[in-house]
Amino acid sequence: MSLREDRDVTRGELADLEVVRERLAREPGELTPHRVAQALRGSGRPVGDETVLRVHEALRRDVLGAGPLDPLLRVEGVTDVLVNGPERVYLDRGQGLELTSVRFPDEEAVRRLAQRLAASGGRRLDDASPQVDLRLVDGTRFHCVLAPIARPGTLISLRVPRARGFSVEELLAAGALTRESARLVRAIVGARLAFLVSGGTGSGKTTLLAALLGTVDPGERLVLVEDSSELRPAHPHVVALESRPPNIEGAGEVDLRTLVRQALRMRPDRLVVGEVRGAEVVDLLAALNTGHQGGCGTLHANSAADVSARVEALALAGGLGRDAVHSQLGAALDVVLHLDRASDGRRQLREVAMPERSPDGLVSMVTAWRLAPDGAASEFGPAAARLADRLGGGGGFAEPGVSR
Q1: Domain end: 99, 134, 161, which one?
Q2: Which has more confidence, 289 or 225?
Q3: How far is CA 390 from CA 102, 188, 208, 335, 397, in A?
Q4: 4 pLDDT exceeds 70?
Q5: Which among 18-32, 323-337, 342-356 has the top mean pLDDT?
Q6: Are 61 and 70 in contact (CB under 8 A)?
Q7: Distant-in-sequence, close-in-space partners of 251: CB < 8 Å, separation ≥ 6
Q8: Same domain, 172 and 320
Q9: Over 50: is that where the pLDDT of 2 sits?
Q10: How many domains does the chain have?
Q11: Do 217 and 91 lie in a common domain?
């Protein structure tokens, strides 16, 4: 759909939008079809009711919600809407990025939409503060960087929350899990092992974590800590804390590290950090080392093997020394579940790994199970026997050479 040539606004009517917008700006008031008609006729151009209604709807979208992006946000299964300047708008509904027909009239229209969305979240977005990351009222995560810092124009990223989280069965049907990996992850959760879900951006970490939390015993209390509220586990006892950025005056910030500490005082059966991205990893490791079994979270990493280095870098920034980081990591973490995108764009659980401490005290991740390159078969790794022992045979998982 395009503001230039879609069925809502014709090419001729597009020129009227700016005229009407300027006139309405000079005379503040509610946006109604009657006022739009007055503004159009005041420009000297005779118009019919159909034209008035189309221009009114275009203006309404431009001043409410996500403007011309609203229809894309309502597409079934959409997870992301991405704006690369006025000419290229993409969406992702699970099969990779798709170029849409949505266009903006010009760079100023993109910038105006971005600034309005930022203002709706109480944030400033201008040349002095050209980037913003926040959650909108409906739960959509909004990120923007203004041009000319961004090319080919202002860049907008909208992450759409799912009203209801996926179940493990739905992920199995979608190909994100195989029958074997579905049994395995259920067993990991049931055994109350501490785990991290790793993967790149958009690999499905939050989706898998929410599905796994839905399998937790209903009698357990889940305390979620998130930078931006995205987890929607189907569980009867969930409480959540969400971080808060500084306001326009630079005050009022509540960071994840503070919230992790608060969560520990809320009697969690499972402490969940939606995304570990900073110094809060220090408090999470400490929590997992003090009897909070089954804790979990997500972490950006290119592979399971990279998780140790990623945790080390974050913890060092949080003031924990290298030896202490690896000591805590080896004692706190039981399993890493690594996700990646297949060549066809599908998100898949590709590897399950376990931490192993070397004689020098450093921790590395060793494969217990991995999905074969064909995406169907599975392969055991060196840590398979250890994982089977931790699970006690749960989920039908066994060490190599043992019938399953």
Answers
A1: 161
A2: 225
A3: 52, 9, 21, 10, 10
A4: no
A5: 323-337
A6: yes
A7: none
A8: yes
A9: no
A10: 3
A11: no
More confident call, 212 vs 399: 212
Q: For residue 404, tell me if it sits in a domain.
A: no
Q: Are residues 215 and 255 in the same domain?
A: yes
- DSSP letter at 365 equals E
pLDDT in tens, 143-187: 999 999 999 999 999 988 776 778 999 999 988 999 999 999 999
Give the domain-ending residue among 161, 181, 198: 161
For 337, other C-beta atoms within 10 Å of its C-beta total 26
Tell the residue number behind the tokens 């960071």, with chain if given.
255
85 and 53 housed in the same domain: no
Q: Cα-flanking dihedrals φ and ψ of residue 133, to 5°?
A: -145, 115
Mean pLDDT of 53-71: 71
Residue 226 in tokens: 């998130």
The letter for the amino acid at 74 is R
pLDDT band at 9 (very low <50, low <70, confident <90, very high): very low
The answer on 71 and 55 residing in a single domain is: no
For 177, residues 6+ apart whose C-beta sits below 8 A from its C-beta are 168, 171, 185, 348, 349
Residue 303, classed as helix, strand or coil, is coil
Q: Tokens 């009222």 identify what position? A: 137
Q: What does the pLDDT look like over 193-221, one tens digit per residue? A: 999 999 998 888 999 999 999 999 999 99
Give the chain's length: 404
Please report, for the domain that includes residue 178, its CATH number.
3.40.50.300
Please state whether 361 falls in left (phi above 0), alpha (psi between -120 and 50) or beta: left
Integer angstrom CA distances of residue 259 from 265, 337, 351: 10, 24, 30
How far, in Å, CA of 297 to CA of 317, rounded?
19
Number of Cβ within 10 Å of residue 53's Cβ equals 14
204 with 339: CB under 8 angstroms?
yes
Amino acid (one-letter) located at 340: D
Is residue 209 within 8 A of residue 272, CB to CB? The reply is: yes
**Tokens (6 digits) for 316:** 């060092």
Domain that holds residue 82: 65-161
Number of Cβ within a 10 Å radius of residue 347: 24
Identity of residue 80: D
Three-class secondary structure of residue 3 per DSSP? coil
Give the tens place of pLDDT for each residue, 100-136.
999 999 999 999 999 989 988 778 899 998 999 888 8
Q: Round to whole Å and give the CA distance between 339 and 208.
A: 9
Question: Per the domain annotation, does 282 fall within a domain?
Answer: yes
